[in-house]
Amino acid sequence: MLSGLGALDIALLMAGGVLLDALLGEARRWHPLVGFGRLASALEKMLNRRGGYAHGVLGWLLAVVPLTALAWLLADRGGYAVHALLLYLCIGLRSLRDHNIPIAEALARGDLPQARWLTSRIVSRDTSAASEADLAKASTESLLENGNDAVFGTLFWFAVAGGPGAILFRLANTLDAMWGYRNARFLRYGWAAARIDDVLNLLPARLTALSYVLLAPTLDGKRRAWRCWRVQAPAWSSPNAGPVMSSGAGALGLSLGGAAVYDGEVEQRPPLGMGQPACTADIVRAWALVRNTTLLWLAIAATIALGARYA
User: Fold this and answer.
1) Contact at 8 Å (CB) between 158 and 167?
2) N or C: which end of the chain has fewer CB within 10 A?
3) Any domain includes 223
4) What 8-state DSSP symbol labels residue 234?
């Protein structure tokens, strides 16, 4: 372990961070990632005047390295509890539930305007005229993809490097979400942020996809999830979102992807999964898959710790 923590330490602290997230949820005020987003915006406005690759690298280094170093210093001086606290600040399991289950609840009571507004808070696509099926698809896709970004990637890097590893991953992932666009403004400046996130997510995303395969409720579902991953993922624009979303959609027996409205224009995306279009109930099913995957990862960490202890 790069953190110097043992396997048992990692398992206990990982469970502690997830438990804190379940009990406390996302910080309502002064959330560190919100503050980091403001810092990243200020750096981008200052450095991205010519849109150069080197400016993007410099921006990434200035945003991520000092805060990761500070996290390492705090963990080194503060002991085990700081690692769990840093993980809590990074992980977003309860946040996924708190942002998506209300969409399902609004759709269930027929409140389409409320469901559209809630969905617009978590996705970049246009939801102003979205149907129930469109909103269910958007929420389900968001849960599957962000299960990796907000939960499993964070847990993976926590296992590798403790609290500082979780901080590094979440800051890099946030910069990708802010700068990793292929448009005139960010094509060069955001290149480094996008590529670094791709590298950091390379293994976590495939472990997430494999977990979705394993947790499909039926043998046919497992085969379908595996087949969708292998066949559909290469067509997706993101090398890491493709495996995660295709395997998750296959595990749930859903057809996702396809048409979505961005900036007033309909974009035809590659297909994800096989089966029926998403409906309201599938939002809850997707959340359950993410939750169960978290429990699986905690169980694996505990098993590794016990194996190391009694080996």
Assistant:
1) no
2) C
3) yes
4) G
| Residue 1 belongs to a domain | no
Q: What is the DSSP letter of 148?
A: I
Considering its fold, how many domains does the chain have in total? 1
299 to each of 10, 11, 222, 292, 304, how far by Cα in Å? 12, 9, 20, 10, 9
pLDDT band at 222 (very low <50, low <70, confident <90, very high): very high
Give which of 151, 179, 157 is closest to 169, Cα–Cα. Answer: 157
Q: Whole-angstrom Cα distance, residue 125 to residue 264?
A: 9
pTM of the complete model:
0.94
Spell out the alpha helix ranges (H) of the chain: 7-24, 32-47, 53-78, 80-90, 93-108, 112-120, 132-146, 153-179, 191-214, 219-232, 241-252, 280-310
Q: How far, in Å, are 72, 73, 124, 217, 295 from residue 69 at the CA level?
A: 5, 6, 32, 42, 30
Query: Can you spell out the DSSP letters for 28-39?
Result: SSS-HHHHHHHH
The tens digit of pLDDT for each residue in 170-216 reads 999 999 999 988 888 889 999 999 999 999 999 999 999 999 999 99
Phi, psi of 261 (to 5 degrees): -100, 125
What does the pLDDT look like over 287-296, one tens digit per residue? 999 999 999 9
